[in-house]
Amino acid sequence: PFGRFIKEEDHFILVGWSSPLLFPYTNFTLGGWFTGSSFITSWYTYALASSIWKAEIS
Predict the structure, then answer these.
(1) Distance separating the N- and C-terminal Cα atoms of the chain
(2) Handedness of CA 13, 15, 16, 18 (dihedral sign)
(3) pTM listed for this prediction
(4) What is the mean pLDDT of the chain?
(5) What is the Cα–Cα distance from 15 to 18, expressed in whole angstroms?
(6) Which DSSP string corresponds to 6-44?
(7) According to the model, what pLDDT value does residue 52 have?
C-alpha cells in the first residue's frame, strides 16, 4: 500500500531507518519464541513425568 507514495530517495531513507528498528524486534521475537517454546516443553515434560511418577506409586 505504501509503494506508490515512496520515491527513490524516500525508499532509501525508509530502509536506512527500518533496519536498526527491525533487528532488535526480530531478536526480541526470536528470544520470546525460544523462551516460550522451552517453557512449554519443560512444563509438558514435568507434567508427563509427574503423571508417570504418580502412576508408579499407586
Answers:
(1) 63
(2) positive
(3) 0.40
(4) 75
(5) 5
(6) --HHHHHHHHHHHHHHHHHHHHHHHHHHHHHHHHHHHHH
(7) 85
Helix, strand, or coil (residue 4) = helix
**Count of C-beta atoms within a 10 Å radius of residue 6:** 13
Looking at residue 3, the DSSP 8-state letter turns out to be: G
Domain ranges of the chain: 3-57
C-alpha cell at 38: 522451552
The residue written with cell numbers 531507518 in the block is 17
**Does residue 30 contact residue 22 with C-beta atoms inside 8 Å?**
no
